[in-house]
């Protein structure tokens, strides 16, 4: 680290996994976030802002232990453990269960904000990153799930993405199969872990040792490959006999039917192999993918028990979209969401500042974006400034 | 050329020992290119007709290419997957390249139990695997990461123990090293990027099934 450092030169760094958004990136981020905020408002969602820091005990209520080791933690003055929020679903559930008690149900809320997770940083995956998302709290019907998925599709379209696909699954399909079988708790955890880590070879090895019947082994091994359109659902239906799995499939069919009416079903595939990494999901789950991005761009699902752990008994569903991932995908797919042109630069020579201010005022009122020089310039200097700052036009006041 | 091109499938192959059997196996299921060779000057080898790109990478880097989606699918040893801990699909055990990850000590240092080696120095190319193995046994060790010739470390007093990948054990014998524990067997794996596996599912799944059929044929013979 010191190897390349010049003596007496101090180069301040930002902490691991954080980044600056320079003007171009910041304006793209703002454009995407603005479009999303507008979209969510149009769909009748209200924005909520929650604290960046929460008590650790609040954050672990819903998230479970998996995320615990990925949280940034520290102490307050009274030695209580604080954490930077690792996702927004838990704070939203806390708000709904405490501040909105007795409000008309369901509640439709949205957020656009930063969250923090300690992980190996890479492109599109920093320790601090931005998410936009919605939650419907107080609704257990497929209509709510369908709305969330339709809104996820609209979000990606509004962000400027054209090519993407949503994989839709349901955790109960797998749970039903496992409950019906005679697997021990440990074995179930092993199987789930293999599925979550996408280790299909490991999954096969666990199943061979599990003592399950050949047909059950084949079925479980097949789950990560159950991928397709409506005919796949029918196929899956004939593969299982338990109620829970079948209800899961019926639920997916209902949601899909509604998505057809939203006119977004062409973006949606069924994928029964999706198990989101968060433990809190209880019903349908989905992930969005776009070419050129090696990890999902958005994800969400139903989490009916989380509000319960905050003392409010009602169903909830929602999704979150990674803002940096959207920006990265737009860039990789060669889509530029913002105008590069910066408007007008006003230069002025000595004693004409007052005139220039008036001029800037008029132009700004008419909707132009205008930068006013702060020091007097010659016409040639002003031209140079306009060019180097990237303004489309120059107004020179003399 | 990236995996954002939906028409093409990008396949990553590792340099070294696994290259030849990997290329051969993929060729059997129709995934090959005319000038596909480990010594190719070209960095990306393309088969226009089959819409395939091939890239050849250093073994330790291969999972990174897959995780980022720079390549859609690839073949790599389980040892590298265990060490790199990347987020990707491990689709198939291809059963070739069989080796084992093991613990060895110089004959003179042999003790009764593994826990008798506690707090000694372990030289290895695989610090993560070594650490998680000893950790799972409740034994604390000091780990020294080396990039090759691991057997040398105990001979010159850099470490007492080694964790390494061995195929036959001949090198161990030649250096008076004794295998004291097997961590796990290791073979070549067929892997895929998690998004490619969804967006290019039909194509990747077809190749997986063809490889599976090929492997099952080998067993019944």
UniProtKB/TrEMBL annotation, chain A:
Q: Where does L-histidine bind?
A: 87-89, 117, 131, 135, 276, 280-281
Q: Does the keyword Ligase apply?
A: yes
> Which Gene3D superfamilies does UniProt cross-reference here?
Bira Bifunctional Protein, Domain 2
User: What are the BP-aspect GO terms?
Assistant: histidyl-tRNA aminoacylation; L-histidine biosynthetic process
Its annotated compartments are: Cytoplasm
What Gene Ontology molecular-function terms does this entry list? Answer: catalytic activity, acting on a protein; glycosyltransferase activity; histidine-tRNA ligase activity
PANTHER family in the record, alphabetically? HISTIDINE--TRNA LIGASE, MITOCHONDRIAL-RELATED, HISTIDYL-TRNA SYNTHETASE
State the remark under miscellaneous: This function is generally fulfilled by the C-terminal part of HisG, which is missing in some bacteria such as this one.
| Protein task | Required for the first step of histidine biosynthesis. May allow the feedback regulation of ATP phosphoribosyltransferase activity by histidine.
The protein's name in its UniProt record:
ATP phosphoribosyltransferase regulatory subunit
Please tell me the species this chain comes from.
Answer: Pelosinus fermentans JBW45
Q: Which gene encodes it?
A: hisZ
From TrEMBL, chain B:
Q: Which GO terms describe its molecular function?
A: ATP binding; ATP phosphoribosyltransferase activity
Domain of life of the native organism: Bacteria
Give every ATP phosphoribosyltransferase catalytic domain span: 59-212
Pathway recorded for this protein: Amino-acid biosynthesis; L-histidine biosynthesis; L-histidine from 5-phospho-alpha-D-ribose 1-diphosphate: step 1/9
What are the GO cellular component annotations?
Answer: cytoplasm
Q: Name one GO biological process term.
A: L-histidine biosynthetic process
User: Which keywords does UniProt give here?
Assistant: Amino-acid biosynthesis, ATP-binding, Cytoplasm, Glycosyltransferase, Histidine biosynthesis, Nucleotide-binding, Transferase
PANTHER family recorded: ATP PHOSPHORIBOSYLTRANSFERASE (PTHR21403:SF8), ATP PHOSPHORIBOSYLTRANSFERASE ATP-PRTASE (PTHR21403)
What is the documented function of this protein?
Catalyzes the condensation of ATP and 5-phosphoribose 1-diphosphate to form N'-(5'-phosphoribosyl)-ATP (PR-ATP). Has a crucial role in the pathway because the rate of histidine biosynthesis seems to be controlled primarily by regulation of HisG enzymatic activity.
Q: Quaternary state and partners of this protein?
A: Heteromultimer composed of HisG and HisZ subunits.
- Domain free text: Lacks the C-terminal regulatory region which is replaced by HisZ.
NCBIfam families in the record? hisG (TIGR00070)
**What name has this protein been given in UniProt?**
ATP phosphoribosyltransferase
Q: Which organism is it from?
A: Pelosinus fermentans JBW45
Provide the gene name from the record: hisG
């Amino acid at each position: 680290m010191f190897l390349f450092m010049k003596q007496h030169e101090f180069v301040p760094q930002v902490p691991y996994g954080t980044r600056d958004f320079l003007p171009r990136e910041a304006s793209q981020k703002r454009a995407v976030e603005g479009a999303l905020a507008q979209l969510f408002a149009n769909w009748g969602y209200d924005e909520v802002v929650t604290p960046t820091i929460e008590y650790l005990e609040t954050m672990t209520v819903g998230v479970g232990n998996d995320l615990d080791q990925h949280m940034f933690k520290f102490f307050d003055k009274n030695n209580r453990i604080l954490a930077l929020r690792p996702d927004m679903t838990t704070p939203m559930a806390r708000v709904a269960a405490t501040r909105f008690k007795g409000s008309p149900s369901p509640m439709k809320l949205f957020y656009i904000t930063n969250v923090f997770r300690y992980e190996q940083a890479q492109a599109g995956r920093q320790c601090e990153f931005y998410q936009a998302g919605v939650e419907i709290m107080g609704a257990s019907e497929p209509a709510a799930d369908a709305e969330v998925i339709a809104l996820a599709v609209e979000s990606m379209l509004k962000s400027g993405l054209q090519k993407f696909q949503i994989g839709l699954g349901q955790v109960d399909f797998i749970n039903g199969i496992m409950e019906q079988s005679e697997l021990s708790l440990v074995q179930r955890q092993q199987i789930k872990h293999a599925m979550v880590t996408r280790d299909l070879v490991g999954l096969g090895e666990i199943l061979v040792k599990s003592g399950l019947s050949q047909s059950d082994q084949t079925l479980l091994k097949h789950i990560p490959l159950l991928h397709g359109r409506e005919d796949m659902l029918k196929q899956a239906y004939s593969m299982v006999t338990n109620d829970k799995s079948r209800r899961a499939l019926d639920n997916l069919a209902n949601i899909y039917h509604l998505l057809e009416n939203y006119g977004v079903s062409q973006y949606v595939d069924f994928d029964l192999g999706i198990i989101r990494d968060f433990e809190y999901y209880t019903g349908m789950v989905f992930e969005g993918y776009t070419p050129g991005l090696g990890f999902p761009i958005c994800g969400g699902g139903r989490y009916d028990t989380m509000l319960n752990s905050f003392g409010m008994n009602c169903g909830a569903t929602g999704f979150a979209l990674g803002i940096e991932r959207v920006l990265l995908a737009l860039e990789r797919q060669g889509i530029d969401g913002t105008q590069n042109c910066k408007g007008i630069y006003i230069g002025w020579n000595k004693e004409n500042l007052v005139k220039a201010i008036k001029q800037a005022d008029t132009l700004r009122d008419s909707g132009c974006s205008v930068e006013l020089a702060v020091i007097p310039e010659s016409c040639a200097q002003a031209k140079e400034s306009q060019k180097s700052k990237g303004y489309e036009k120059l107004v020179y006041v003399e | 050329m990236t995996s954002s091109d939906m028409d093409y499938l990008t396949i990553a192959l590792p340099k070294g020992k696994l290259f030849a059997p990997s290329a051969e196996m993929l060729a059997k299921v129709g995934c090959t290119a005319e000038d596909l060779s480990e010594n190719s000057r070209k960095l990306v080898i393309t088969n226009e007709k089959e819409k395939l790109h091939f890239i050849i990478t250093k073994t330790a880097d291969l999972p990174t290419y897959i995780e980022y989606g720079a390549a859609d699918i690839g073949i790599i040893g389980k040892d590298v997957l265990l060490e790199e801990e990347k987020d990707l699909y491990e689709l198939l055990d291809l059963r070739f390249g069989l080796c084992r990850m093991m613990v060895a000590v110089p004959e003179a240092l042999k003790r009764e139990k593994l826990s008798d080696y506690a707090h000694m120095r372990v030289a290895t190319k695989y610090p993560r695997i070594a650490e998680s193995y000893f950790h799972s046994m409740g034994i604390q060790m000091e780990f020294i990461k080396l990039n090759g010739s691991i057997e040398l470390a105990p001979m010159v007093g850099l470490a007492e123990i080694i964790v390494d990948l061995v195929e036959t054990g001949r090198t161990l014998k030649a250096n008076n090293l004794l295998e004291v524990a097997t961590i796990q067997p290791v073979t070549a794996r067929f892997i895929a990027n998690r998004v490619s596996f969804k967006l290019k599912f039909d194509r990747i799944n077809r190749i997986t099934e063809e490889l599976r059929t090929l492997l099952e044929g080998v067993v019944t013979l």
